[in-house]
Design brief:
Oligomer: heterodimer
Helix content of chain B: 25-40%
Number of domains of chain B: 2
Strand content of chain A: 15-25%
Number of strands of chain B: 21
Mean pLDDT of chain B: 96
Shape of chain B: globular
Largest sheet of chain B: 10 strands, mixed
CATH superfamily of the largest domain in chain B: Class I glutamine amidotransferase (GATase) domain
Largest sheet of chain A: 8 strands, antiparallel
CATH topology of the largest domain in chain A: D-amino Acid Aminotransferase, Chain A, domain 1
Distance between the termini of chain A: 50 Å
Number of helices of chain A: 28
Strand order of the largest sheet of chain B: 10-12-11-13-14-21-20-19-16-17
Radius of gyration of chain B: 21 Å
Helix content of chain A: 25-40%
CATH class of the largest domain in chain A: Alpha Beta
Structural class of chain A: alpha/beta
CATH topology of the largest domain in chain B: Rossmann fold
């Protein structure tokens, strides 16, 4: 029964962090498009400066506040929405929704909760209630009890046996867990856990370490119709967090009966929770007995819901929004590029998607690099191929494991260390698995040691065989064909054979198997209607048609997998470039490998390529699409130099390479940001830099707070503006430029100049109301309306101070580091202070 | 790896690599888009005479499981796939997919652009195909000259009755090319099963004193079976509850005056939403369908439509107005495919129970 809602409050996800990249913002972007179709008004609360969605909603309806219960209540009191959507803001939004129910705000204000009923929410918040309710419908969960001491723990162990997992119970988000195989380990774990809690309790549960971890993503409508969008299989067994695991979609090693049992279980759980929308359920599967446990139920949008959408081409967020609003699966009208059947035809794939995580171990060296039950990955890359081998290799050479297009050698690891790493995996696990195969470990032995299904070793073995063939037959056509079949990029071959990429491409051009692009679509070729997402494979039929020569075509090269540093901001930047190009009449093409990137959102571009961001792959796409312009967002020094060798390309680096910056890192305290177009220098605002309060690091790279305007703006702005107009050389500096100063008792000393950073560009857009990325893109395309910009930047009369504060993942990663550099940032949040209110106070 | 070709009746040829048996084969080419259960698919008798193109990118990943065969002697004519893996997971590590196909003389071809083939068949319609060593004129001549049998049912169905004992209802299963999934589901419900040949008469069947009769799935066109079968169905449906599945469903419709049409686009997969008309509920199930009931030909005095496919509009379920007889086009046993509609077997058992209760009250 679809309901008419007039105003919907969306609870955002706040700043990005570990386990929360841009996927929520990407989902929100689609959700907003869907809600708009229904005519409902949108109110949005989120303080993430890199949110693209926040800029899609009318500014007056965006509450840039910390996402917490009190703030949500205050927004509700002001806006009186008739529905709250808590399903695209992660677990925090769900917790807030539950608080809204408990505090009777929902009832008093007659607000509907979208996605899941308030009663059922309790089960998501309270593990014991969930367990009871699952037991009621005949689903098995892992036995677990709360204990206060070792005797109670041993009582439990006598019942279920070792191994067990001990977790401290605390109100903070302490996610540490200890796997214990014997009484000694149990004693240590309990001692450590009790230290971490205020209430002197910890939980102990049956361990299912070594089981297969299988995830199912389904949708359900208000009539009770259910559909399975995708199954996902973690290559790594239970014991390694799903976020740190290599994941395959669809599942690869399940028997039909196992798969169907999990499907049926997913459906009955969705029924029991009365889900409207999407639900992601995780299972531990014992493949010896084909029995399983339900390990996690997430009736809201998650990272892996998103992966299911990316792997099938099924527009899950868009559809789920309608489902939450009460539409049935068969009632949903999708945008015209989809088949009219897409919403309710169960996705089936003829390709494989592999996700490889990206870890921050290089950026934060003091954290434990072992993979275990605590998630450490900050991002991931995906590879899509027609075969498992192809997909693995494409995902790998998009990832940090082979940033320079070649698989690193692990031949120096000694035998003991190798075995140690097989049992206690590190981030480079997949390379270690390959090395073990190379050294002649048997597949049975490896599967036993690692609990990884044999199938994956067969596939890795194939890859090794392919690699060996390629190495043994350098510079031959046959080797190029073999390499392409297994997903090796031309760049990899160039490195291996010590050739230029052009030489490799020349050899390949003789082959009967040229690169083709296949569609990622949910019917495995059954329907003719197309989606617009492609991946490469060296096969016979190419499905990606280039645009006609009348069209203006722009290729935007995404940043790839998320890492620490300004990456979520860079993705924001990429998305804004796409939006602007589309508005200025370009056909837009995005190339990216980050499944969580908002820039890969279905509605943001005309065409998407899920391809490794490597020179060879880029050239393949350029050869087909002949773009009029290529945008490279972010600091992409290596890639831009390489691409520029192909001189006929019109390449735009946005923002300009930071290498041109000149400043003294130790001294900047203030800055003025200006926009330079031709010889016109337009001041935008003044900036205050500050480091963390108790920090001894005063360098700019330890920047913690960025505020506008600066402290003494009322008196000093003019001085800075005057200085800037005197020193800036507009022949050299164009676009968004930042001139930095050191504030001293007697005035401001000039300390340097740089292009405004990506993060700050997002910040400026949120605070000045000018869409800066759009402005820059238009400037480069010669389509800038100069008077409009100047009108928008009327005066330096500020009513509030806006601050962007960095978020670092140190505590989540159990790092002892305190001050973070800009390269260790996981995200940021915004706060605003009204000067009026301040004065009153 | 031996290179081989898949050639199609319309003259197109696809170079690939051989696995399984190296014999030359000819059959009707069909596309299966189910993502799991290659073993169930290959061993399903419904693929007699057919070459199966898998859209799932890799098969053989889980070896072969003794519990997952849909028949003992598979009769598919060939397997076409992008990639296969050769794991053996049985306790003696003997049976990999490659070996299984060799044992049963089924040729396979891999490393072909199956997605291109799917698109090609969508456009050109149903046709014959061969897996051959050389794609020359001779091979195409042979392919054109091959006439595929229309006696599939008699070739795959059991020639003799056999028992599959249980403690519950007496169920007679008429074997038109039965898949094991049907027996598995009936056994789970404790049925005492007797499987009888496809050409059994109604007297032979009713002499077994069944509580209910199941008309099984099977290969080929229902129209190639003799009218005696329809006569049997008419007699049996009057006497005892009846469940008809797949080919059985098509025969049940024909026995009650409906006409059969060959589908322009055959559908083998489990991705189509099926709507139960009375509840409006949508679910998914395995479908292996080359033929459909012409819905215009249905005699509404006798039958009514219970289920419909929301993509191609085909009739997916029927019920008799006067007798406790009903049928489904899809495979509710979920081997392979979703188990969403496995309740069909519960309905059948319940109908048998209700009928027994009401007959007991007669005395």
């Amino acid at each position: 029964m679809k309901q008419d809602f007039k105003k919907i409050l969306i609870i955002g996800s706040g700043s990005s962090n570990i386990g929360n990249e841009n996927e929520y913002d990407a989902a929100c972007f689609e959700t907003i498009a869907a809600i708009r179709k229904t005519g409902a008004k949108i109110v949005y609360i989120d303080n993430n400066p890199f949110s693209v969605s926040a800029e899609e909603v009318q500014a007056a309806n965006v509450y840039s506040l910390e996402v917490n219960f009190a703030n949500v209540v205050s927004v509700i009191e002001k806006e009186h929405p008739d529905a709250v959507m808590p399903t695209i803001g992660g677990l925090k939004a769900i917790q807030i929704a539950w608080q809204l129910y408990e505090s009777e705000v929902l009832e008093e204000q007659q607000i509907s909760l979208l996605g899941i009923g308030p009663q059922e929410l309790t089960k998501i918040i309270d593990n014991q209630k969930l367990r009871d309710s699952l037991t009621e419908i005949g689903e098995k969960t892992i036995a677990s009890v709360i204990i206060a001491n070792e005797e109670e723990a041993m009582d439990f162990v006598r019942e279920v046996g070792f191994p067990v997992i001990v977790k401290p119970i605390s109100s903070s988000h302490d996610t540490s867990r200890f796997i214990c195989n014997n009484p000694d380990e149990l004693d240590d774990a309990i001692e450590a856990s009790l230290k971490r809690t205020y209430i002197n309790r910890c939980s102990i549960e049956q361990s299912i370490v070594g089981y297969k971890e299988i995830e199912m993503v389904g949708v359900r409508d208000s009539l009770g119709n259910k559909m399975l969008v995708s199954g996902l299989e973690d290559m790594d067994p239970i014991g390694i967090h799903s976020g740190d695991s290599i994941i395959f979609a669809p599942t690869q090693t399940l028997l039909n009966k196992e798969y169907q049992a999990l499907r049926t279980s997913t459906f009955s759980i969705m029924d029991s929770l009365g889900i409207k929308g999407t639900c992601h359920i995780q299972f531990a599967l014992n493949s010896q007995t084909s029995s399983y446990f339900v390990t996690k139920v997430s009736p809201f949008f998650t990272r892996n819901t998103n992966l299911a959408a990316k792997s099938t081409g099924y527009p899950i967020s868009y559809i789920s929004t309608f489902l939450e609003m009460g539409y049935s699966l068969t009632e949903i009208k999708l945008p015209s590029k989809y088949s009219k059947y897409t919403a309710y035809m169960e996705p089936t794939s003829d390709h494989v998607l592999v996700k490889v995580p990206i870890w921050p171990f290089e950026d934060i060296p003091d954290i434990d690099q072992h993979l275990n039950t605590v998630m450490k990955a900050v991002g991931s890359t995906i590879g899509v191929g027609r075969t498992v081998e192809e997909a693995i290799l494409k995902a790998l050479h998009s990832s940090q494991l082979s940033p320079r297009d070649i698989l690193p050698s692990t031949s120096k690891v000694d035998e003991d260390e190798l075995i140690n790493q097989l049992i206690h995996p590190l981030a480079s696990r997949i390379l270690i698995l390959m090395e073990a195969l190379r050294r002649g470990f048997s597949i049975d032995e490896l599967s036993e040691l690692t609990k990884i299904d044999k199938f994956y070793f067969y596939k890795l073995n194939q890859l090794l065989r392919g690699q060996k063939y390629v190495a043994d037959h350098p510079r031959t056509l046959k080797a190029v064909d073999v390499a392409h079949k297994y997903g090796f990029g031309d760049g990899m071959l160039a490195e291996m054979w010590n050739l230029s990429i052009n030489d490799v491409r020349a050899i390949g051009s003789e082959s009967a198997n040229q690169v083709t692009f296949k569609m990622v679509e949910p019917s495995a070729g059954e329907l003719n209607d197309s989606t617009d997402t492609f991946y490469s494979s060296y096969e016979m039929e190419n499905e990606s048609e280039s645009y006609s020569t009348d069209d203006k075509v722009a290729l935007v090269i995404g940043r790839g997998g998320n890492q620490l540093g300004p990456n979520t901001a860079a993705d924001y930047y990429t998305a804004k470039i796409l939006l602007t190009l589309k508005k200025t009449g370009y056909r837009t093409i995005i190339m990216n490998t980050n499944p969580n990137a908002i820039s890969l959102s279905p509605q943001l571009s005309d065409k998407k390529y899920i391809e490794p961001i490597q020179l060879g792959n880029i050239l393949n796409i350029i050869d087909l699409e002949h773009p009029n312009v290529v945008f490279l967002p972010g600091n992409r020094h290596f890639l831009s130099t390489e691409l520029k060798k192909f001189t006929d390309l019109n390449i735009v680096l946005l923002p300009p390479d930071q290498k041109i910056a000149k400043y003294n890192d130790n001294q900047a305290t203030n800055a003025i940001d200006v926009f330079i177009d031709g010889t016109t220098v337009t001041p935008i605002t003044t900036i205050e830099f500050s480091n963390a309060k108790d920090s001894n690091n005063k360098q700019l790279k330890y920047l913690y707070n960025l505020s506008e305007p600066m402290l003494h703006w009322e008196t000093d702005t003019e001085i800075l503006v005057d200085t800037v107009t005197q020193i800036i050389n507009t022949d050299y500096w164009q676009g968004l430029v930042q001139i930095m100063f050191n504030r001293q008792v007697d005035g401001y000393e000039f300390v340097g100049i740089r292009p405004v950073t990506i993060t700050e560009t997002a910040f400026l857009t949120k605070t000045t109301g000018v869409d800066w990325v759009a402005t820059l893109v238009k400037k480069y395309l010669g389509k800038l309306d100069k008077t409009q910009i100047q009108e928008q930047l009327t005066s330096f009369n500020h009513k509030r101070r806006s601050t962007m504060t960095s978020v670092f993942p140190f505590s989540q990663l159990q790092s002892n580091q305190h001050d973070g550099t800009v390269d260790q940032e996981a995200g940021a949040y915004l706060t605003f202070k009204n000067f009026e209110e301040q004065k009153k106070a | 790896m031996t290179e081989r070709y898949l050639i199609l009746e319309d003259g197109s040829a696809y170079l690939g690599k051989a696995f399984g048996s190296l014999s030359t084969t000819t059959g009707e080419i069909v596309v299966n888009s189910t993502m799991n259960g290659y073993q169930e698919i290959i061993s399903n008798q419904i693929y007699h005479n057919q070459i199966i193109v898998f859209t799932q990118s890799s098969i053989g990943n889980t070896g072969l499981d003794q519990n997952a065969y849909e028949s003992i002697m598979p009769t598919a004519k060939g397997v076409v796939v992008k990639e296969y893996e050769n794991l053996a997971t049985d306790q003696f590590k003997r049976i990999s997919l490659d070996r299984y196909l060799k044992l049963h003389r089924i040729p396979g071809i891999y490393d072909v652009d199956t997605r291109q083939i799917v698109h090609h068949l969508r456009e050109k319609g149903n046709m014959k195909a061969s897996i051959v060593d050389v794609a020359d004129e001779h091979a195409f001549d042979q392919l054109h000259a091959t006439v595929l049998t229309n006696q599939q049912v008699s070739q795959v169905a059991t020639p003799k009755p056999y028992a599959n004992p249980g403690d519950g209802d007496n169920v007679v299963v008429v074997d038109f090319g039965l898949k094991s999934g049907i027996l598995r589901e009936l056994s789970k419900r404790d049925c005492n099963i007797t499987v009888v040949p496809w050409n059994s008469t109604s007297e032979m069947i009713l002499d077994l004193d069944p509580d209910g009769v199941v008309l099984s799935t099977g290969p080929g066109a229902p129209t190639s079976l003799p009218d005696d079968v329809l006569e049997m169905i008419r007699n049996v449906q009057e006497a005892v509850p009846m469940l008809a599945i797949g080919l059985g469903h098509e025969l049940f419709a024909m026995a009650n005056d409906a006409q059969i049409v060959a589908l322009e686009s055959m559908h083998y997969g489990s991705n189509h939403p099926i709507r139960e008309i009375i509840t409006n509920e949508v679910f998914y199930a395995g479908q292996e369908q080359g033929y459909a009931i012409d819905s215009k030909s249905i005699n509404h005095d006798k039958l009514y439509i219970t289920h419909a496919d929301l993509i191609n509009g085909t009739v997916q379920g029927l019920r008799h107005r006067d007798y406790p007889a009903f049928s489904v086009q899809f495979s509710p046993d979920g081997a392979p495919g979703p188990k969403d509609a496995v309740g069909v077997f519960d309905d059948f058992v319940e109908i048998m129970a209700r009928r027994r209760d009401s007959s007991e009250t007669r005395f």
